[in-house]
Amino acid sequence: MHEKDRHRVILSAVQDRALVTVADLCALTGASEATLRRDINTLDGQKRLRRVRGGAEALSATPFVGLSGRPFSVNETMNIAEKQAIAAAAVDLCQDGEPIIINGGTTTFQMVHPLASHRMQVFTNSFPIAEHLLKNTTNTVMLSGGIIYREQNIILSPFDNDVTRNFYAKRMFMGAAGIGPLGLMEQDPLLVQAEQKLIGQAEELIVLVDSSKFANRASLVLCPLARIDTIITDDRLDDRTAAMLEAADVTLIVVPSGAAHKEGVATLPA
Fold first, then answer.
1. H or E stretch at 38
2. Judging by beta carbons within 10 Å of its beta carbon (0-12, 13-18, 19+), is residue 153 exposed, middle or buried?
3. Given the DSSP bridges, would you call strands 220-223 and 55-57 parallel, antiparallel or unpaired?
4. ∠214-216-219 over CA atoms, to 5°?
5. d(CA 208, CA 104)
6. Which terminus of the chain has a smaller tally of CB atoms within 10 A, N or C?
7. Whole-prediction pTM
């Protein structure tokens, strides 16, 4: 990760919690402690954060409580080549004119680029997805109503009678914090509530996750594996996990790691 990207991750992280340790930043960036201490010193000198013993903190407290989980700006720097290939394979499943739902996330965001050559009816709760599609494509875009959570760049409503209930989708595309034998997992109750409403409006559920998500666990189960129609992931998926998905009757689409999907996509039918 380049210095500029590390600085962006560090600044985003200190806004997400009261104190971020050097160890936390090592996990987020993959850089060494020595490198991150230099980065913190640099940002402290620029008056962009405050250096403290063992880590860093924001210059001012975050005025609004956000959602659990890493910020969008942090996640979008991770496994980017895999996310692009996964998203391209997802768009290959779309046909012009179809109504689809794209749930907010850094992997689903990568769908916006191949969607530029399509004309779809897109419902999304993602502010950056909606903005990009409106500015750069001819797709019809509908946004859900609610509060914009800045760190995750997502729009969520606590109310049951929002516009979500009036949209039908052929397919819904979404990511996840983690996947295990119990199903898709998320970290925040409000996310679970909103995403379950969206899932209920779609005929097919297609999950876009790089292979690292199969090792992740979160505290909340969003939906069981049986509700998922298709999972698109990269070829670092292990055989045991592939067998688990096959047993759950989930169609698996595998894209090459770090390569454009056009070089070859393997589809393992359920």
1. helix 33-45
2. buried
3. unpaired
4. 125
5. 11
6. C
7. 0.70
